[in-house]
């Protein structure tokens, strides 16, 4: 069994981390995303999918601002599984929960890092018959290791090329509940 770090150890991780975006910057990013998404999808009655687990906080904060009719679904695709580097294999832990044939689909996730997760999720939605698939992320990590031929449609904030946590994103499974976006010391 993997040992759970103590509360004191996890407090040190947060204390030593660099704050990249605080609640005010995140609020402004969510507001911008709301306006852009409304413009594109307000009359489409889309299925809005939360990608578990990382997308949970962003979806929870964004959905009540989308003041137009939509359905909510979830799916869990994971490639990092508590590590700070991604595996080449994407694991599906929960398949899409709402049928999407003939529908507009909006995918919500916490971070567009290398992009292999979202590229695979979008391909799966198309394979299931979605007519249009859009992606919105809270953060886009800036580097030149992106999956070729794929981009996201809506971005809240840009973050530097470090391992980040908070607002849905984990550090080894913890601190998804941190109210800002932080970069781990030394990573
Ligand atoms: O752009 P990529 O390099 O593919 O990485 C981005 C993905 O990594 C994280 O998920 P993770 O695999 O950690 O699963 P989790 O959401 O359950 O933590 C995050 O939530 C994104 O879905
Ligand atoms: N928590 C977290 N998950 C990720 N998945 C891909 N990149 C990251 C990152 O920087 N932080």
From TrEMBL:
GO terms for molecular function: hypoxanthine phosphoribosyltransferase activity; magnesium ion binding. It is an enzyme of class 2 (transferase). Its EC number is 2.4.2.8. InterPro entries: HGPRT, PRTase-like, PRTase_dom. One of its GO terms (biological process) is IMP salvage. Residues 25-170 form the Phosphoribosyltransferase domain. Pfam families: Pribosyltran. Keywords: Glycosyltransferase, Transferase. Transmembrane segments: none annotated. Gene3D superfamilies: 3.40.50.2020. It comes from the Bacteria. It catalyses: GMP + diphosphate = guanine + 5-phospho-alpha-D-ribose 1-diphosphate; IMP + diphosphate = hypoxanthine + 5-phospho-alpha-D-ribose 1-diphosphate. CDD domains: PRTases_typeI. One of its GO terms (cellular component) is cytosol. NCBIfam families: PRK09162.1. This is Hypoxanthine-guanine phosphoribosyltransferase.
């Amino acid at each position: 069994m993997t040992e759970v770090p103590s509360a004191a150890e996890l407090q040190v991780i947060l204390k030593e981390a660099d704050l990249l975006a605080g609640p005010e910057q995140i609020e402004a990013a969510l507001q911008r995303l709301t306006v852009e998404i409304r413009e594109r999808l307000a009359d489409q009655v889309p299925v809005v999918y939360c990608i578990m687990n990382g997308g949970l906080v962003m979806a929870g904060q964004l959905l009540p601002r989308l003041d137009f009719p939509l359905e909510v679904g979830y799916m869990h695709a994971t490639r990092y599984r508590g590590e700070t580097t991604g595996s080449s294999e994407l694991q599906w832990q929960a398949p899409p929960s709402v049928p999407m044939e003939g529908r507009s689909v909006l995918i919500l996730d916490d971070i567009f890092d290398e992009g292999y997760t979202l590229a695979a999720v979008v391909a799966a939605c198309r394979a299931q018959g979605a007519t249009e698939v859009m992606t919105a992320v809270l953060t886009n990590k800036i580097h030149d290791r992106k999956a070729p031929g794929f981009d996201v449609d809506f971005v809240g904030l840009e973050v530097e090329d470090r391992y980040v946590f908070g607002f849905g994103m984990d550090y080894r499974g913890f601190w998804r509940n941190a109210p800002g976006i932080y970069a781990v010391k030394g990573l």
